[in-house]
Amino acid sequence: MLEFFPEKDRVIVQRLLRNGICIEDPNEEYGDVIEFLSAWKIINSKEKEFVKCSNLNDEDFAERVDLNCLGIIIVDKDDLYCPECGRPIEKLSAKEKYLQVVVHLNPVGIRNYIKCCIESIENVTALDEIEPFVFKVTRSNGRIFSIVITMYGDVCSLSRGLFFSEPTLYILPSHIEQEDRTILEDQQYMELTDFISETRDEIIKRITIAATPIDGRLNYEEIESQFDDMLERHQKRRWQFFEQEFIPALTNYLSQNPAKVQAYLEKLQRVDQTVFGEFHVPIGGAGQTDLMPVNKFSMMNQLISGNKIGDAKCHTEASLDYSDISTINLHLDRDRDNDVAVVYVANDDIRPNAWRAILDLRTDGKWKIIILQKYLLLELISEIDATHLLEL
To answer: What is the pLDDT at residue 238?
Structure first.
């Protein structure tokens, strides 16, 4: 049975958990960590044998024209040449051989390892994967919190812990994401390295602290409930209310409160260069390769500025699909005064073919059609102090 918390050397683990890192001649300690990470499929590693063009220990050292050449030659074919000086390697047996290990992170392996680690903790009574790389964790004292592995997360899972009070533990797969940590509360994040290098008791302590709500923030589930209740109050004319009353009231509030809008945009800009600055949307199929990143600041900035038409879709059960996008695009092409359409959606169910169509319509990074789905709509309302609109 594989270990969960092996307490490996922290510095070595941090170095290896960098996508694309190349380790030359790994020693026994590195080999031990690589073996552990590979066993859990946290990494995919590939070994390559290489020789050095000019190496004092080689039999052909004196024969080299440039004794200071730093060229490295991968031994992968019969005819070998130095990529630096162009000299051929005529006698491979005269060269001292070295090992090079190239490491790539495996998101699925990381997800499975974290899942197994959390499930092994005694005071965790339930763990449900509610979205890819997002877990809902229930502890024995009844407290519930989310764990989000910051790879390929959707907009709600990546953003909710930053903008609302719900306790969320973000797990950063790689140590190089220093900028991602600067925007989080200390209790809100752990590195994947922590699970591999810290003691089991320390991990349990960190998880216990993470299950604490953030003070001074609104609760997303409460706001979502208010939003759903508002639509339910207008059930008999729900789509007319959403399209003709609620969205016009919101857009009017946005135009009358530029300072609040700017403060929200500045907050998005602060996270723009971090893993939280973009979210991933499905564009077809079920694999991770079928996810595409969307820059949140760019989209919301364009949403709030420029000429645009609005098209509200009060889907509470049905999905927004390709046919909806095609119709909106047709209307936009006929509109001479506006070059952007904003689609306000009352749920988060957007079909992959709709996202693909929207992404294909972008030109030079500019959106032609912007979808403001339910989560983003409620985040915007919360950040600009417009929750009173949910009482309409």
So the answer is: 87
123 neighbors 141 (Cβ within 8 angstroms): yes
Strands (E), 286-357: 291-295, 309-313, 341-345
Q: What is the mean pLDDT of each run of 10 residues along the chain (392 residues)?
A: 91 93 90 96 93 90 82 87 88 89 94 95 92 91 90 82 90 76 80 95 89 83 94 90 90 93 93 85 66 89 74 69 90 81 84 91 90 92 96 94
pTM, two decimal places: 0.80
Pick the closest to residue 211 from 142, 113, 289, 120 (CA basis): 142
Longest dimension (CA), the chain: 90
Q: Which helix (H) or strand (E) holds 226?
A: helix 220-233
Q: Of 284, 278, 285, 330, nearest to 300 (Cα)?
A: 278
User: Contact, 179 vs 166, CB < 8 A?
Assistant: no
The per-residue pLDDT for 259 is 95
Q: Are 330 and 301 within 8 A, CB to CB?
A: no
Count of other CB atoms within 10 angstroms of residue 297: 18
Beta strands per DSSP E along the chain: 22-24, 43-52, 72-74, 97-105, 124-131, 134-139, 144-149, 168-172, 189-191, 278-282, 291-295, 309-313, 341-345, 369-372
DSSP class of residue 40 equals T
Quick one: pLDDT at residue 288?
45
What's the DSSP call for residue 214? P
Closest CA to 125 of 109, 142, 138: 138
Helix 352-360 / helix 322-334 crossing angle, nearest 10 deg = 30
